[in-house]
Amino acid sequence: MTAPVRLVLVRHGESHWNVEERYQGQADSGLTGTGREQAEVAAAALLARFPKPDLVVSSDLPRAWDTAQAYLRHLDMEAEKDARLREADIGTWVGRTFTEIAAEHPDVLAEAARGGDPRRGGGETFADLRRRVWAALVDAAAKAGPGATVIVFCHGGPIRVAAAAALGLPEPGHLSFAPPVNTSLTVIGYAGERGNAVAEYNAPTAWAAHATRTD
To answer: Longest C-alpha distance within the chain, in Å?
Structure first.
């Protein structure tokens, strides 16, 4: 039987807007000093478990790409950028604090908490996010080949919807999974039509890791 592809999803290190509790979406505030330290710790954990990946892929947003560099410095290979692995497009909510959005759009947040899938800030739905992220992961798995290990540096939202897609949960499915902490690992066994598995979810690699909004 053909071995599944191991997809190892890594959330980026702590960013400035994580600390300030601002929505980021597809904007980027850069890693904090703590975020860069988290990336180094995550790199050590990845090297211990996955010292010879077959492929490394990253979101093209700086907070994910910069997290990847700590790992890549120890490998004789480069990462491929894929914009489909970006965080959700949240439109006009970018840069706004969680408190501001809660005060101005309580109806939208309530709908989302009930399991609805509104276009936050006029951007994407989580179902939209899930389709593009899963397509990127399927393509990466196909490129790497059966039995390969693919390391994927991305964001909290993509990790949640990818786990839901792997298990075939109804769209969007993200509410079944807690927001991943910074530089945590999620491992998906991808076998296509033969079925997939979430072997590991939100496993911390860094000290003092805490959950922040996935945006």
So the answer is: 54
Please indicate whether residue 155 is annotated as part of the active site. Answer: no
- Answer for the pair 8, 187: CB distance below 8 angstroms, yes or no: yes
How does DSSP classify residue 152?
Answer: E
Structure tokens belonging to residue 71: 């790992």
H helical segments located in the chain? 16-19, 33-49, 62-72, 98-104, 106-113, 126-144, 156-166
206 neighbors 43 (Cβ within 8 angstroms): no
Number of domains in the chain: 1
Q: Is residue 210 part of a domain?
A: no
Catalytic residue among 16, 37, 80, 87: 87
**Nearest CA to 63 among 22, 96, 28, 89?**
28
Whether the full predicted model's pTM is greater than 0.90, yes or no, is yes
E strand or H helix at 9: strand 5-11
The answer to whether 133 and 158 are in contact (CB under 8 A) is: yes
The residue segments making up the domain with residue 160 are 5-203
**pLDDT (tens digit, 9 = 90+) per residue, 36-53?**
999 999 999 999 999 999
Active site residue 78: no
Average pLDDT over all residues of the chain: 94
Q: Give the list of residues 6+ apart from residue 19 with CB closer than 8 angstroms, or none.
A: 32
Cα-to-chain-centroid distance, residue 210: 15
DSSP 3-state assignment of 188? strand
